[in-house]
C-alpha cells in the first residue's frame, strides 16, 4: 500500500483554503501535516522533512523564487493552487477537486551539491572609512551580475545597512536568526532574510549598540554557514572593534569571529592622513592574519596632492600589504544614494565608484571558495 502524500498548505487566507482542507481530509491518499500561517512557518515545517508537497497561494507575503528553491532543497515539491506559479519557479498548478494529483508532482531536480558561497567580511577602523557603503555597493554589484548574494549587517556598534537601503522594518534579522539558532532551530534562520531584488537578500542588524549581547559568535557562525549554502556570495559588514576578540564575553568577539571565518577580508580605510594612520594601526592590531587582508582605500581624489602610486608605496612600507583597490570620491552620488535609500549604482550608474566596485565583485565571486 502506498503511503499517503504529506501535504502542507500555505494559503494565507486565500478563497480556496477551506475547500482544499476539506478535500485533503476526505482523500485517503493525502494527509495534512501543517496549515502554515505564513512563509516562515512553511520553511520551518519543511525543515522537519515531514512534508512531500506544499500547496501555495502565489501572492503569499514573502513568497518568491528563493523560497521555492529552498523548499526544493529540502525535498518539498511546490504546487500553486488555482493559479500560474511559473514566475516563482513552480511548474505545477493544483486544481480544486483534483488535489489527489499533487502526488505526481515531479520531485525537484537539484543540481549537483553546490559549493558553499564565498564569505567576504568588510571591515575597517573607526572613523567612518566607508565600510557600510562599500558593503552595500559590493552586494548590489554582485546581485546585478546575477550572483545569489546576501548582505548581513553584523556591526555590533549599531547597524546602519537597513537605513542605507531605506528598509523601515525595525525587526533585526540577524538577532532573530541567532535567536532561532540558540533555540535549536538553525533551519529557520534564513526565514529572517528580506528580499531586495531577484538575486539579493538582506539580513538587518542590531538597531542599538547596547543590544550586542543578543549576537553570540557561535550562533552567528551557524547562521553564516547556512547562508553560504544558499548564496554565491555572503557580504558581512562587521564592526571596527576587535581588541577584545578573545577571552571573556565582549562585543568584539562577533567581529573577530567573522574575520576568522571569512574567505576574504576587505579592510577599508580613507585616503587622508588620519584615515591612513588608523588603517595602518588597525591592520597591525588585528594580526596575525590567517590570510592577507585586501586593503581598499576609499575616497581618493586629486585634491589630496597624492598619486595612487605614492599612497600605495607608503601603505605597503607601513603594513607589508599592497592596496588592492582605490575607490574614487563621489560625494554627490553618495549623498543622493543616502537620501533616497538606494545603492549608488541605482542613482549614479556612471559613477567611477560603481565601476571600480563592479570589478571587485567580479574578482571575488569568480574565485573558488575554500
Automatic annotation (TrEMBL):
InterPro entries: P-loop_NTPase, ParA/MinD_ATPase, YlxH/NBP35. GO terms for molecular function: ATP binding; ATP hydrolysis activity. GO terms for biological process: negative regulation of cell division. The keyword Nucleotide-binding applies. GO terms for cellular component: cytoplasmic side of plasma membrane; cytosol. Coiled coil: none annotated. Keywords: ATP-binding, Nucleotide-binding. This is Pilus biosynthesis protein CpaE.
